[in-house]
UniProtKB/TrEMBL annotation:
PANTHER family: STRESS RESPONSE PROTEIN NHAX (PTHR46268), UNIVERSAL STRESS PROTEIN UP12 (PTHR46268:SF6). InterPro entries: Rossmann-like_a/b/a_fold, Universal_stress_UspA, UspA. It comes from Tenacibaculum platacis. Residues 1-140, 148-274 form the UspA domain. This is Nucleotide-binding universal stress UspA family protein. SUPFAM superfamilies: Adenine nucleotide alpha hydrolases-like (SSF52402). Belongs to the universal stress protein A family. Gene3D superfamilies: HUPs (3.40.50.620). It holds the Pfam family Usp.
Length: 275
C-alpha cells in the first residue's frame, strides 16, 4: 500500500478516518492524500463574474486555513500528507481523484444513513462506494488503531465473484488477516439445496486455487444483508469485505446494492471491492 485517499469535511468523522489512515500509513509507509470537496454557493451564479471570482478566492483561502489547522496533529508527525482541494459538487467525483493519484485505498468514516435519507438521498459514503474502482474502507465510530485479525467475504460463489475475491484476498493478505468466505442462503427463487451449495462452492474454490485453504461458512436468513451482519456479530469478525457492482444486477445481488446496505448498517469496518 503506497497511497491512501481520505476525504474530509473537518468533522469528527473526518478526523476518525484521518487517524485510521495515519495508523495504516505508519504501518505500510504510505502517503496520505487528504481531499476536501469545495462547494461554491449557488447564490453567486446570478451575479457578476468578478464577484464569483472573489467569492471563490475567499472560500479557497478559508479552506486552506481550515486544512492547516485540521492537519496540525501529533499523529501525522511522521506521515507524508498531501492536502488537495477540489471544486466538485459532490463526492461522486472522488474516484476520479483516486484514479489520478493512483491510490491504493479510499478511507472514510461514516455514521450510515437510515430511513428517508437512505431512500431518497443516500449518503456521501454510498456515492463513493458505488463509483470507486479501487477498494474503499469505511469505518464506523472510533478510529482503527490495531490490525484486522478476522474478515468475512460475502459472495454467492458464481464466476462473477472470482475477481472480487482475488482483490479481497490481496487486501486480507496485506492486512495479515484471516479471510473467511460466507454464503447466505435466502428463501425464494435464489434458495439452494445443500447439494447445490456444496457443488457451487467446490467449483468456485477450485477455480480460484484455494481448495482446502479457506474456511467457508453458510448461514440462512431472510435477506443477504441480515445474514451478513448477524454472522459478523456471532463470528467475532472485525472486518466485512463486500463486492460491489454499482447498481448492475447480477446473480444473487439483483435487488439493489447489498454492499451499500451493509456499509450503511454495519457497526464493523467494511471494505468494498469493485466487481
Amino acid at each position: 500500500m503506497k497511497k491512501i485517499i481520505v476525504p474530509v469535511d473537518f468533522t469528527l468523522h473526518s478526523e476518525n478516518a484521518l487517524r485510521t489512515a495515519a495508523f495504516f500509513a505508519n504501518t505500510y509507509k504510505a502517503e496520505i492524500v487528504v481531499v476536501h470537496m469545495l462547494e461554491t454557493s449557488n447564490s453567486v451564479i446570478s451575479v457578476s463574474n468578478s464577484y464569483i471570482n472573489e467569492q471563490i478566492v475567499f472560500e479557497l483561502k478559508l479552506t486552506e486555513k481550515k486544512f492547516k489547522e485540521f492537519l496540525d496533529k501529533p499523529y501525522l508527525k511522521d506521515v507524508t500528507v498531501t492536502p488537495i482541494i477540489k471544486h466538485h459538487k459532490s463526492f461522486s467525483d472522488l474516484h476520479k481523484v483516486a484514479e489520478d493519484e493512483q491510490a491504493d485505498l479510499i478511507l472514510l468514516s461514516s455514521k450510515g444513513a437510515t430511513g428517508l435519507k437512505e431512500i431518497f438521498y443516500g449518503s456521501n459514503t454510498e456515492v463513493v462506494v458505488r463509483n470507486s474502482t479501487i477498494p474503499v474502507l469505511v469505518i464506523k465510530g472510533l478510529p482503527v488503531a490495531d490490525t484486522f485479525k478476522k474478515a468475512i467475504f460475502a459472495c454467492d460463489f458464481s464466476d462473477d465473484f472470482i475477481e472480487p475475491f482475488k482483490k479481497a484476498k490481496a487486501m486480507a493478505d496485506l492486512f495479515n488477516c484471516e479471510l473467511q468466505l460466507l454464503y447466505v442462503n435466502t428463501p425464494g427463487a435464489k434458495f439452494r439445496t445443500t447439494r447445490e451449495k456444496k457443488d457451487r462452492i467446490a467449483r468456485f474454490l477450485e477455480k480460484v486455487g484455494e481448495t482446502g485453504n479457506l474456511t467457508v461458512a453458510e448461514v440462512s436468513d431472510f435477506s443477504i444483508e441480515e445474514g451478513i451482519l448477524e454472522f459478523a456479530k456471532t463470528n467475532e469478525s472485525d472486518l466485512i469485505v463486500m463486492p460491489t457492482h454499482g447498481k448492475h444486477g447480477i446473480e444473487h445481488f439483483l435487488e439493489g446494492s447489498i454492499a451499500e446496505d451493509v456499509v450503511n448498517h454495519a457497526l464493523l469496518p467494511v471494505l468494498t471491492v469493485k466487481m
